[in-house]
Each structure stands twice: as C-alpha cells, then as structure tokens.
Design a protein that fits this description.
This protein has 482 residues and is an all-alpha fold. The protein has one domain. 82% of the residues lie in helices and 0% in strands. The chain contains 20 helices and no strands. It has helices at 4-36, 39-56, 63-69, 75-107, 112-119, 121-127, 130-138, 142-165, 171-192, 205-272, 278-305, 307-314, 322-329, 331-339, 342-348, 352-373, 377-401, 408-434, 442-464, 468-477. Mean pLDDT is 85; it is low at 478-482.
Length: 482
C-alpha cells in the first residue's frame, strides 16, 4: 500500500480529533452528572459493571482484532465470524440476566437485580456490530469511524443528562450505557454497507477463532486484575465509597482511554500490514510510541500537581474525598501510556501468546496490591495499585520487546526527550502555582497551572529537546500524496 503512511497519519489525526472531542464531552457530562447525581448512584452502576464487565470481554471473542490483523480474509469468512458473534451475544445476554439475583445478593443490594437485567441488553447490541466495525477498521475508514464515535458519545450524553434532569437517578446512567452500543451498532451497519450471508465452513476459521480466543483470555485476565478492587470496595466499603473511588478512577483513566482508542486501532491496522517489512515496522512503532508517551506525560503531571483543583472544578465541592484518590492514581496515566502501545507490537507481530503470559504474571501482583490496601479504604487501594504498576513498567517493556527488532534501548530513546521536557514543565508549573495569590479560586489556579504546564512542555519538547523536525514531518505527511 503505497500511501499507507499518509492514510495512517490521516486516520490517526481523525481519531485523535474525535477522541479529543469525546474527551471534552465526557468531562463535560461528568461535570453535569456529578452535580445531578450522588456518589451512591455511580456506585450502584459500578457494582454491576465491575462484574458484568467480565462478560463484556467475550462480546466479540477477539474476532474483531483477528479480522483486522489477518492479511487476507474473505467475505464468507467474515459472515461466519458475524454469526459466531451473534451467538456469543445471545449467550452473554442470557448469562447476565441469570446472574442478576446473584449480583444483588453478593452486594446485599436488591436494586441491582433490575439494573443488571436492563444492562444485559447491551451485549446483544454490541455483538451485531462487531464485524461491521472491524471491516471499517480493516479498510482504514477512520474518519467515518471517528464521526460515528463522536455522534455516539453525544447521543448517550443527551440521554443520560435528560434522564438525570427528570429525576431518574441511577437509571440515567443505565440509559446512557445502553444508548452507546445501540447508536454505534446502527451507525456502523449504515456506513459499512455490508450484509452478512449465511455461515459456512472454512479451513482457516478454526485458526481465526483460536487467535481471537487467546486475545479474549488475555483480556479476561487483565480485566479481573484491573477491576477486582471495585468489587472488593463495593462489598466491604459500600456504594458511596465505591462511587467516590470510581469517579476518581474514571477521571484519571479518561486521558489514556481516549488516547489508546484514538491511536490503537490505527496503529494495529498499519503495523499489521508492515509485519513483513521489519525496518518500516520498527520505525512506525517507535514513532507512534514516542507520540503517545509525549502526549501522556503532561496529563500525568497535571493530575499529580492539580488534583484538588481538578476535582473541585470537574466534579464539584461535594467530591473533595475523591481528590487524594485521584492524586494517588495519577502515576498510572503515565504507566498505561508506556505499556498500552506494547499491545500494538504484540498483536501486529502475532505474539498474542506472549501477551497472555505477561497478563498471567501481572494479574496476581495487581490483585495482591488491592488486597494489601483494602483495609485502608479507597486511598489504600489506590496507593497499592499505583505502586505495583510503577514497579512493573520496566519488566513489562523488556518482556514485550524481547526477541523483536525493537530493543529496550530503542524504547528508552523514544521516551527520553518527552521525559526531559516534562521535568522542565513540571518544575515551571509547580513554581508558578506556588507563587499564585492565596485568594485565587480553584478554576483560576487551575487555568494558570495548566497554561504554564502545557506551554512550557510544548516549548521544551519542540525546541529544547529538538523535536520540532519530528512533528513538522508528521504535519507535512498529512498533506496530499504525490
């Protein structure tokens, strides 16, 4: 594909713009809903999703990634995968509905029965759109996908806010959760313009399902590791404590979630097409990796330095207990910014088995950190989680790149210049905020701090660390192909 570089960059820009809009929308909806609902409302939904989220991992059985990653796939093969996804969706919907009483009994909260039954419909909505979305990613139609994602976010927020204003309480969050897969699936069906045929047997189907199954198992192990603390907090500390922790966790996760959603699908699609060209594959990966880390660093600093003001401005004065939790979780923004891109490397190179082995080692460590911090409540859990993730970074990176054309030294080089710029920016913004008058409001202090942070970081990255040519070339590559 001669114009792969340009299409990749344009797709990346479209996704980044979309995720930037989604970031603003999500934070805006968070600000509104945090003032219309109480922590217990968020806690109730978090109790259910922490458990049913495990089922959500099986919604596509890894078949969307398999469709994107394969060099060649026929229309009839995709149709077969579509019907497999539908069967999985039906099974997950039934399983979620059957588990509703068990979830309610576990948390000793009867309201969770009806909430779980309602949310179970989302599995079916998701299942029927998996292959259509994967087809559009395979075709690198990222501008269309970005438009769909933004429209979906807007629709779900409108439903959630309107229901909250009408006094539906936690049901507004249920409505919001169901609107997302319904609107997204309807949109990709319309835009993909692909109609599945009846399923048929193919010699390669078993290999595709095996590949997808490995990805699903990997996701299951990681999900349990990253979400068990919500189950434990809900069970032993209650809905209010969990709601406070969950809002802090969601807020700190927004940057990496959006960034990974923006770049991840584009990167996997592009790298999968370059796996037979190791030199270009390495170059593409390292440039993408450097870009993600460079974007993540200032967000990490902002969360760590301005936690109290951010929580006060975004969630409101009634959520002050979330501020220390938010600050303790801040290091995970950088951690995930550094380790999430390793997924591109492993999937595009066909090393999903290694990814599963890594997950099997990491999960017990993360769970142990939760258990150690649980007696101290949400703050103890947040501290334990951040500590183990920071200690895990270097071993994770070394394990991922072992035996590939990318070395740990390459990774260190890609990180070094953004890190140097981040240190300069953090020092400058901390000093400026320290010198601010005491009578400034949270919003004023936050604006001063963030403006100083991002302006200093950008200047240091482009000129002190001499990264201007790198970003200039990226911009030029977005122009018309010649």
């Amino acid at each position: 594909m001669k114009d792969l570089r340009a299409r990749t960059l344009r797709g990346g820009v479209a996704k980044i713009c979309s995720q930037g809009a989604n970031l603003v929308l999500r934070i805006g909806s968070l600000m509104i809903l945090a003032r219309l609902l109480v922590p217990g409302d968020f806690g109730l939904i978090a109790m259910v999703t922490a458990v049913t989220g495990i089922l959500n991992l099986f919604r596509d059985f890894g078949l969307s990634t398999a469709t994107i990653q394969r060099k060649d796939i026929s229309d009839s093969q995709m149709s077969t995968l579509f019907w497999i996804n539908v069967l999985v969706g039906i099974a997950l919907t039934g399983l979620a509905m059957a588990s509703a009483p068990l979830i309610a009994n576990f948390y000793r909260e009867p309201r969770l029965t009806s909430v779980t039954v309602a949310l179970s419909a989302g599995f079916m909505f998701n299942a029927v759109g998996v292959q259509h979305s994967a087809l559009m990613q395979r075709q690198m139609r990222f501008v269309a996908l970005a438009t769909i994602e933004t429209a979906t976010t807007v629709a779900s927020i409108i439903v959630g806010v309107v229901m909250a204003l009408r006094g539906y309480g936690y049901w507004s969050l249920v409505g919001m959760a169901l609107t997302t897969p319904l609107v997204y699936t309807a949109s990709v069906w319309l835009m993909a313009a692909w109609m599945p045929t009846l399923p048929s047997r193919h010699p390669e189907t078993a290999n595709i399902v095996r590949f997808g199954g490995t990805i699903t198992l990997n996701g299951l192990v990681i999900y349990i590791a990253y979400n068990l603390e919500k189950v434990l907090l809900g069970r032993y500390w209650g809905a209010t404590a969990l709601g406070t922790y969950d809002r802090a966790f969601q807020l700190v996760s927004i940057p990496t979630d959006n960034l990974n959603a923006a770049v991840g699908s584009v990167a996997v699609s592009a790298l999968s097409r370059l796996k037979d060209d190791p030199t270009r594959w390495k170059t593409y990966f390292l440039k993408g990796y450097s870009l993600v880390v460079a974007t993540t660093l200032p967000m990490t600093i902002a969360a760590a330095l301005f936690a109290t003001d951010l929580i006060h401005v975004v969630l409101g004065p009634n959520w002050s207990e979330a501020a220390p939790i938010f600050r303790l979780l801040a290091p995970t923004i950088l951690v995930f910014g550094m380790i999430n891109p390793m997924w591109w490397l492993l999937v595009s190179a066909g090393l999903v088995g290694r990814s599963l082995r890594i997950a099997l080692v990491l999960s017990p460590l993360v769970i142990a950190s939760y258990v150690a911090g649980l007696p101290y409540g949400p703050k103890g859990v947040a501290l334990g989680y951040s500590t183990i993730m920071v200690l895990w970074v270097v071993p994770h990176l070394a394990w991922c790149v072992h035996g590939t054309v990318v070395s740990l030294r390459d990774i260190a080089h890609a990180i070094s210049r953004p890190l140097g710029a981040a240190i300069i920016a953090a020092s400058a913004s901390w000093l400026v905020v320290l010198l601010c008058p005491d009578d400034l409001s949270s919003l004023e202090r936050l604006l001063v701090g963030l403006t100083t942070l991002f302006a200093t970081y950008l200047g240091a990255l482009l000129y002190v660390m001499r990264q201007w040519p790198f970003y200039r070339d990226l911009v030029r590559a977005l122009g018309p192909s010649t």
